[in-house]
Design a protein that fits this description.
12 helices, globular
Length: about 280
Amino acid sequence: MEKPIVGGQAVIEGVMMRGFGKVATAVREPSGNINVQVKPVNSIADRFPILKLPFLRGSVSLIESLILGMRSLSFSAQAAGEEEEQLSDKELIFTMIFAFGLAAVLFIAIPTFAAKFLHSITEDPFYFNLAEGIVRLAIFILYIAAISRMKDIQRVFQYHGAEHKTIFCYEADLPLTVENVKKFPRLHPRCGTAFLLIVMIVSIFVFAFLGWPDLWLRILSRIILLPVVAGISYEIIRFAGRSKNSFVRLAIMPGLWLQYLTTREPDDSMIEVAIKSLEAVQE
């Protein structure tokens, strides 16, 4: 039998793990203690099994992961002493709307507007969509490279590396100890960074079927088709994460290389936090 899939994300001074129907967030408090919060995952797909079908489950997983991730970040900020209290549901919704709006401007509006300057060279819609995808990818890489220079973000990226190493150790059926976890690489094929790269590549081909309509229609169509792009991308990264095929491994290498920007080698104390988080969802 295949092992249940466990995923996670780095948070402020900690790691969130999701699996076995639970989500656990472990955070290193200023006192040095590790504060672990465990909550059940109530997925809408459990009430509507049709949402577990391929190409539908990707969009559901993405939305739920964003919500769980924001809640874990809010808890970690409070536990690490960054904030006095956690975000309320209204504040969480407002934060997500603001983040989505900012992402739409950076990764949809600006790239599709910039691609119009190709009109003097070609009128082929495919090349317009290709140029749009390249601009979107360039903005993403520059954004990651810029924030990675911040000291606080570097610590988050270290916890990101601890999360990957710990999941690798779990998948290898080894005891979750600091020494075992340290042996594994920090680059994981199912990472969200690799997922975002796949989303950008898949979007080029999906949007190419629409041709090159007016600017407002291009922006609207890209927002509407995000669930389609996410669904396809989710199936690709899910398959790549389990496949041992050498060609598949070669195809996902760019996604792994990108993780050199979003992960750092963790220290032992960070690995200890990641282990506590994973152990909490396994209990």
